[in-house]
Fold this protein.
Amino acid sequence: MAVLELVVNADRPLRFTDIHALTRQPRGTLHRHLSHLVDEGLLFQRADLAYEPGLRLLSFAHRAWSRNDLRRIARPHLDRLHAETGETVHLGVLRNTEIIYLDKVESRQTVRMESQIGRVSPAYCTGLGKAALSVLPPARLDDRLARIVYYPFTANTHRSRGALVADLDRIRGRGYAIDAEEHEVEIRCVAAPVATGDEAGESRGIVGGISVTGPAYRVTIGQLEAWSGLVRDAANAISHDAAVGLCPVSMPDR
């Protein structure tokens, strides 16, 4: 899995020497891992001997997405929120210190977001991520915070644990998060947490969020705050529907 994830997440196809340098696995062991992954169609070896993701992963991704209960539960609420705001609406789930985009309703405007379903973004500088982190129990939140590396994507990105913790306190107090161009320049969003279980983040529960996102020239901070009630209501409705079991949900945050 470590080798597969390394190749899939790489910005370019990797050769054996690249993978060996990054994993430090014994050469014989690494050869066997790569051979098995290629044989199973999970990786593909190109003519230049570099490795890239295999097409079998598309089948896995499609099945995981199409059968996901949270996405099915959330979709009517996402559609309603999109109709109310006219901007792009996202659904994401927390995985370790990252947010995975699970669904998206595209804006009706001509300028749209480049986000994609399945994309992974840092939790500490995205509205979805901060909303999800804000509802984690203290022990689980401390574990996540200890693993975050604060890379400055923009001038507004949090650069320390203290700055993030202060922001999370504000988010808990008002029930929604604002991403004021913290991850991408000229992109803003308002997000609210989605959580189920007796205690947010416990096994058999889910932790994630929904957001309304738009370009900064079109979406002011004031507009995001005006939409915050709609976003909170939609997030609470999704949390309720998932918790009461409209569909069995099993998406533990790991």
DSSP finds nine helices and eight strands in the chain. Strands lie at 43-45, 51-53, 88-95, 98-105, 120-122, 177-180, 187-195, 207-215.
